[in-house]
Structure to design on (369 residues):
C-alpha cells in the first residue's frame, strides 16, 4: 500500500521567525557573521555559510571571487577546464582572494575524467589542502552516486566534500560516511521543473529540519539548496539549523552572472505627442542545468529518453552583485538582533518559528520602482 504522510510539509513562505526580547545586542554591527565549521572528516573552515549555485550562469569565476572576498563560500561549475580553473586560482592568489572556501564541482558522468581533472589541478596548479569538492547530481539517490562519492573520498581524503542533491533525511547518514556536507533540496529551484515533470520534491523548511537533525547527530553539515527568494529565506534556513544555503536565481540577474544584459522594448497604452510611450526593460538569461537549453549547450542534446527538468528564463536585471551580498550580510545580522543571537550558530537556539497564512504585505508590489 502506498504510504501517505499526512503532516503538511512547509516551505519558506509558510513560516516567519518571531522577534523576541532578551537580546543583549544593541546593534547589528555587534553580530559575528563568521562561523567556524568543524567538518566530519576532520577539516576546519571559517566563513558565512552562503554559496552561489554550481550552475553555468552563477557558478562562474567572477561571482565566486566576490563571495570569497566577502568571507562567504563559493562553487565553480563543472564545465570549466582544468587550466581555466588553475588560471583562476593563480589570479585569485595574486589578488589576495582567499581560496579556502572555494568548492570545485564535478559531476557523476565520466568520473575517471573528473578525477583526472582534479589530480592535474593538484600537480599543475598546487591545488592542495585546504581544498573542497562539490559532487553534483540532480538526483543523488541513484546507486552509482554513493560509489562515486566513496571513490572521491578515497582519492582526496583531506578534502571537504559536499554531495547532493537529496530530499529526505533517510539517506543523510549513508552519504555522511564519505561526505562532510549534504546538499538538500529537490524541486525547489527557481529554474526547476522537476516537481511539474515528475511530481517529486520536498518543501524546504520541513526538509531542512529533518536533514539537519540527522546530519548533526553524526557531526555532518547540510546546505539548503534552492528556493531562496528573499534574504529572509536565508535567515529562515539558518534559524532552522541549516549550516549553509545555496543561491541561484537571486544572483542570476546581476552584472556578474554569465551572459549579456538583454534590452526589450514594450509599447504602452500611454500616448504622448500622438505616439505610444515605449517602456524599456532589462533582463538576463537564467536556465536550469537540466533544461533543454543546458542539455543542448553542454550534453549534445536531450537524448530520446529524458524530459527537460529545467526552465530557460529571462529574469529582471538587478545590477551589481555587491548590493545583494551586502543585503545578505545586513539581513542576517539584523535577523540576529531581532531574536538575540550574537552569532550565526546561536540563531537556531534563539529562533521561535511561527507558521503563518500570510507572510508578506504585497499591496503595493506592482508599484515597485
Ligand atoms: P534557486 O536559488 O534558483 O531557487 O535554486 C538554485 C538551485 O536549483 C541549484 O543550486 C540546483 O540545485 C537547482 N537547479 C538548477 N538547475 C536545475 C534544473 O534544471 N532542474 C532542477 N530540478 N533543479 C535545478
Amino acid at each position: 500500500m502506498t504510504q501517505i504522510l499526512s503532516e503538511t510539509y512547509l516551505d519558506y513562505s509558510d513560516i516567519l521567525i518571531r522577534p523576541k526580547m532578551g537580546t543583549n545586542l544593541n546593534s547589528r554591527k555587534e553580530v559575528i557573521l563568521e562561523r567556524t565549521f568543524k567538518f566530519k572528516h576532520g577539516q576546519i573552515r571559517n566563513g558565512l555559510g552562503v554559496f552561489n549555485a554550481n550552475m553555468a550562469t552563477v557558478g562562474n569565476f567572477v561571482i565566486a571571487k566576490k563571495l570569497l572576498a566577502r568571507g562567504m563560500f563559493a562553487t565553480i561549475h563543472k564545465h570549466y577546464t582544468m587550466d581555466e580553473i588553475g588560471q583562476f586560482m593563480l589570479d585569485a592568489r595574486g589578488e589576495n582572494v582567499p581560496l579556502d572556501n572555494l568548492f570545485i564541482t564535478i559531476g557523476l558522468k565520466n568520473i575517471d575524467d573528473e578525477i583526472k581533472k582534479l589530480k592535474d589541478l593538484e600537480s599543475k596548479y598546487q591545488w592542495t589542502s585546504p581544498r573542497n569538492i562539490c559532487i553534483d547530481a540532480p538526483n543523488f539517490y541513484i546507486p552509482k552516486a554513493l560509489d562515486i562519492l566513496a571513490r572521491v573520498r578515497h582519492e582526496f581524503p583531506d578534502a571537504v566534500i559536499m554531495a547532493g542533491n537529496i530530499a529526505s533525511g533517510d539517506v543523510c547518514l549513508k552519504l555522511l560516511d564519505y561526505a562532510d556536507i549534504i546538499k538538500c533540496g529537490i524541486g525547489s529551484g527557481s529554474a526547476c521543473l522537476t516537481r511539474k515533470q515528475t511530481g517529486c520534491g520536498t518543501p524546504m523548511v520541513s526538509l531542512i529540519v529533518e536533514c539537519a537533525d540527522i546530519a548533526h547527530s553524526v557531526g555532518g553539515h547540510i546546505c539548503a539548496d534552492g528556493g531562496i527568494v528573499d534574504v529572509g529565506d536565508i535567515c529562515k534556513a539558518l534559524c532552522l539549523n541549516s549550516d549553509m544555503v545555496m543561491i541561484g536565481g537571486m544572483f542570476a540577474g546581476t552584472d556578474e552572472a554569465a551572459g549579456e544584459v538583454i534590452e526589450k522594448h514594450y509599447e504602452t497604452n500611454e500616448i504622448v505627442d500622438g505616439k505610444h510611450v515605449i517602456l524599456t526593460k532589462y533582463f538576463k538569461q537564467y536556465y536550469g542545468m537540466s533544461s533543454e537549453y543546458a542539455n543542448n549547450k553542454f550534453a549534445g542534446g536531450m537524448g530520446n529518453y529524458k524530459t527537460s527538468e529545467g526552465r530557460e528564463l529571462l529574469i529582471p536585471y538587478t545590477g551589481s552583485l555587491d548590493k545583494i551580498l551586502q543585503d545578505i550580510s545586513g539581513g542576517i545580522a539584523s535577523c540576529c538582533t531581532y531574536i538575540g543571537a550574537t552569532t550565526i550558530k546561536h540563531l537556531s537556539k534563539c529562533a521561535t518559528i511561527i507558521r503563518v497564512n500570510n507572510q508578506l504585505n504585497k499591496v503595493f508590489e506592482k508599484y515597485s520602482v
Remarks:
- Residues 321-339 form the longest helix (19 residues).
- The pocket of guanosine-5'-monophosphate is lined by residues 53, 55, 138, 165, 185, 187, 189-192, 194, 225-228, 246-249, 288-291, 309-310 (CB under 6 Å).
- The radius of gyration is 21 Å.
- Residues 262-299+309-314 form one domain.
